[in-house]
Design a protein that fits this description.
The complex is a heterodimer of chains A (about 375) and B (about 400). Chain A has about 375 residues and is of the alpha+beta class. Chain A has two domains: about 1-45 and about 250-380, no CATH class; about 60-235, no CATH class. Chain A has helices spanning about 1-15, 15-40, 45-50, 70-75, 110, 120-130, 135-145, 185-195, 215-225, 240-250, 250-285, 285-295, 300-335, 345-375, 375-380, and strands at about 55-60, 65, 80-90, 100-105, 115, 130-135, 150-155, 160-170, 180-185, 205, 205-210, 235-240. In chain A, strands 1, 3, 4, 5, 6, 7, 8, 9, 11 and 12 form a ten-stranded mixed sheet that branches. In chain A, strands 2-10 form a two-stranded antiparallel sheet. In chain A, about 45% of the residues are buried. Chain B contains twelve helices and twelve strands. Chain B is of the alpha+beta class. Chain B folds into two domains: about 5-50 and about 250-385, no CATH class; about 60-230, no CATH class. In chain B, helix 2 (about 15-50) crosses helix 7 (about 240-245) and helix 8 (about 250-285) packs parallel to helix 11. Classes of the chains: A alpha+beta (about 375), B alpha+beta (about 400). Chains A and B meet through helix 2, helix 10 and helix 11 of A and helix 2, strand 2, strand 3, helix 8 and strand 11 of B.
């Protein structure tokens, strides 16, 4: 018991130093948590993607479309249940910085995505309106879109300004579902394109399809690709998750940099903490010698130092962990929807706790050795 | 009289462990700060050097990038005949009609596919970019399935060495040369014959057109004429402006991320400096008293501790900058959010960055050291001398 008391008293001896150290730790642990969450957010699209849906695209790259005629041939492959069309529209809503995804999709697209919830009434309204569109809840909240609003979008791939009428708001089934997209009728896109630039008509960006048994996904994707081997538009089929991870991999050096930097902050605070502990230990040389003279062993002294270091870290670390969720929601608001999913995961909190412990232990090693090795006579003679 | 600098420096030397730890923390912050600035400078330099001042890029109105754009043959002919376009030695306009698409290639570092720009150029295309030089192999022959690759592509993607074949659009394309584009964005591209590429991709229109102006001040006229011509639906931009616009999103992202990180990290490092300086003051109370008794003024003591803190930060700053300078040997490649293609660029250390970084580290020392130095300066001589 008196050991704990001694540790607490020691920790509070230099109040200012302890407070500064705790503040530093809080900031570092918070920064580490936020950076980890940024990396998680990067993967959110892939994490939310399903393994039971496959995506077929042009093998050259996403820039090239596939002919409409492929739809029935994909449907003919064994194990394929439902084939939907999706074209990336890539338009601009007022200003380029208001970036969000717009897809022209076939009407059966929603059947493939049970995680996008839409009231039956809104769904039938959408199906009836040729120029209708559906917007995700996160998007609707960001720009204040309501049912009945007209959204003008300037096309970059498909020229002209397009106007869509909001006919429904898509809700996510749970908080991992990304609802920051706008969906509209593929037929509307195709009709308009046929009038303006007939060569661009009857072309599909990607086909998304469901399979009856997700375990067969690899075999089915091979058989789909073999159907179109040596054709004008060879295909590449992969699971939706692999498709999304492909996007993430394109910026993997940025993610790697963020990862490295998130450990840099831990090292920085380790240096700060180790320094604070080293100074405390040096100042207390006389005390350590006294304690030894009283009969306490080196292990006890080392324990004293470790205890103090871990106690301070625990306070700073806990504050940092507690501050992470509110800071994350502030960050999410401040970045204006760049990261539609920005949740602090349990894993992040565990990592934060582990880092805190590591800092506490690492910072105490040298001072603890110093305390344990103090020779009584020299220690009593030492001057601060 | 001021307290001598040697005396201040010795104080840091006496507490080596503490000095090293504090300076180490500061060095890491400075390293992150400098690395981000260098990355942004590298990105800017890459994209600015991609453009020639007198070159103009024409893309379809509303399109943001060459990949999204389409210009049909008639429109291209109308524009290349504009009087503002320079005439080459062979009497033909200096204009390159180009096809720009993305193909997906496997990146060596991650073993994952990434998008690479493949650009079909007209015979004049190479001459319009004087920074592009063949460094190995030879130029592709017009009318053949041959391609040349930029130096970053040759380094970063598999299957792009001279003599190797890339298969896309139902053809095998032979790599016959490697070009160096002087660190510009073209280093991240593959070039081939525009007519061959259009045919195999089954396209009937060009993506963009690059023209050389006969005189630099003709740009406004060229742009205005294109804007009003009812046969055209295109938009002209100076090449430099065009490429720097394309990096805006990436540059903003790097800056915001870097600024946020540096701010948060610097708070941690300043706290470290503050703890060290407070301890330095606390350990030397009697010494401070002696200095005051010898006749040094409060302001001298304040200055001495501030200088000590700044010196400490400067040591960290120089160490951090030294590590950051080594980053110049590394290159960074990532997908540009706007063009959706892989772009490779370097970390570049400019004199401005050196000055900014050192100023940043000294400021951290100054802020971290201010309160401790105040405490030292406000000590009462008698009390201080009495301290053990």
């Amino acid at each position: 018991m008196y050991l704990l008391k001694l540790i607490a008293r020691n920790a509070l001896r230099h109040k200012l130093r302890t407070i500064l150290t705790v503040v530093g730790l809080t900031i570092a642990v918070l920064a580490y948590g936020l950076l980890n969450t940024v990396v998680d957010a990067w993967y959110a699209g892939a994490a939310a993607a399903s393994n039971a849906r496959l995506v077929t695209r042009n093998a050259i790259s996403l820039v090239f479309p596939l002919p409409l005629s492929y739809e029935s041939r994909i449907r003919g492959v064994d194990g394929v249940t439902l084939v939907a069309r999706s074209n990336w529209f890539g338009g601009i809503y007022r200003e380029p910085k208001n970036f969000f995804a717009q897809f022209a999709v076939s009407d059966n697209y929603l059947d493939l995505y049970p995680e996008l919830v839409l009231p039956a009434q809104q769904r039938s309204d959408y199906l009836r309106d040729r120029k209708g569109c559906l917007v995700g809840r996160q998007l609707a909240n960001q720009f204040g879109f309501k049912v009945g609003d007209v959204i003008p979008i300037k096309g970059t791939i498909y020229p002209g300004t397009w106007e869509f009428v909001v006919r429904g708001i898509l809700d996510g089934r749970d908080e991992t579902t990304i609802t920051r997209q706008l969906l509209f009728h593929w037929e509307f896109l195709n009709e308009t394109v046929r009038k303006k630039t007939p060569r661009q008509a009857d072309q599909v960006g990607v086909y998304v399809f469901g399979v009856s048994n997700p375990d067969d996904a690899a075999a089915i994707s091979r058989s789909v690709d073999s159907v179109f081997k040596n054709s004008l538009a060879e295909t590449l089929t992969e699971t939706e998750q692999a498709f999304q991870l492909g996007f993430v991999a394109m910026s993997n050096q940025i993610i790697a940099a963020i990862r490295v930097v998130s450990y840099v902050v831990i090292v920085i605070i380790m240096a700060v903490m180790a320094n604070a502990m080293a100074m405390s230990a040096r100042e207390r040389t006389v005390e350590y010698a006294t304690l030894k003279a009283l009969g306490f062993g080196p292990a006890f002294l080392a324990l004293l130092v470790f205890g103090e270091s871990i106690a301070i870290c625990a306070i700073g670390g806990s504050l940092g962990i507690l501050a992470t969720p509110p800071a994350a929601s502030l960050f999410k608001q401040a970045t204006g929807g760049v990261f539609p999913i920005f949740n602090v995961s349990v894993e992040t909190i565990e990592l934060q706790a582990a880092c805190t412990l590591a800092i506490g232990l690492a910072a105490a090693i040298v001072p603890a050795l110093h305390a344990a090795r103090v020779r009584i006579v020299e220690g009593l003679r030492a001057i601060g | 009289m001021a307290i001598p600098l040697a005396y201040i420096a010795r104080n840091l030397w006496t507490r080596r462990l503490t000095t090293t730890l504090t300076a180490g923390g500061l060095a890491l912050v400075v390293f992150v700060f400098a690395a981000v600035l260098m990355l942004d400078a590298g990105l800017k330099k890459t994209l600015v050097s991609t453009g020639e001042h007198d070159n103009v890029v024409v893309i379809r109105k509303g399109a943001e990038t060459e990949v999204q754009s389409a210009i049909d043959r008639n429109q291209a002919s109308i524009m290349e005949m504009h009087p503002s376009v320079a005439i080459g030695a062979d009497g033909r306009p200096l204009a390159s009609k180009e096809e720009v698409v993305l193909i997906s290639l496997v990146k060596i570092s991650s073993n994952k596919p990434s998008n690479v720009v493949i650009r079909g150029i007209s015979p004049t295309g190479l001459g319009l970019r004087p920074q592009v030089k063949l460094v190995a192999g030879r130029m592709f022959k017009a009318g053949s399935s041959e391609i040349i690759v930029g130096s970053s592509v040759a380094k970063g993607f598999s299957g792009t060495q001279i003599g190797e074949h890339l298969r896309f659009a139902q053809r095998d394309w032979t790599v016959v040369g490697t070009f160096d584009a002087g660190g510009s964005g073209f280093d991240s591209e593959i070039w081939g014959d525009v007519d061959q590429l259009m045919q195999s991709f089954r396209r009937t229109s060009y993506s963009s057109m690059v023209v050389r102006l006969a005189q630099t001040n003709l740009f406004d006229r060229f742009k205005a004429d294109i804007d009003v011509d009812p046969r055209l639906a295109d938009e002209a931009k100076r090449e430099q402006a065009f490429y720097s616009d394309q990096s805006k999103a990436l540059s903003t992202f790097i800056n915001i991320l870097g600024f946020t990180l540096s701010t948060i990290f610097s708070i941690a490092a300043m706290i470290g400096a503050m703890i060290t300086m407070y301890a330095s003051v606390a350990n030397r109370v009697a010494e401070i008293g002696t200095l005051r008794a010898l006749g040094f003024k409060r302001i001298n003591v304040l200055a001495a501790f501030l200088v000590e803190a700044m010196l400490l930060a400067l040591v960290g700053g120089i160490a951090g900058l030294g590590c950051a300078a080594l980053m110049q040997f590394a290159s960074f490649s990532t997908t540009n959010f706007q063009t959706f293609a892989d772009l490779s660029f370097r970390f570049i250390l400019t004199p401005t960055i050196v000055v900014k970084t050192l100023a940043f580290s000294v400021t951290m020392g100054l802020i971290g050291g201010f309160l401790p130095a105040m405490r030292a300066a406000r000590m009462n001589i008698v009390d201080a001398l009495r301290a053990r």
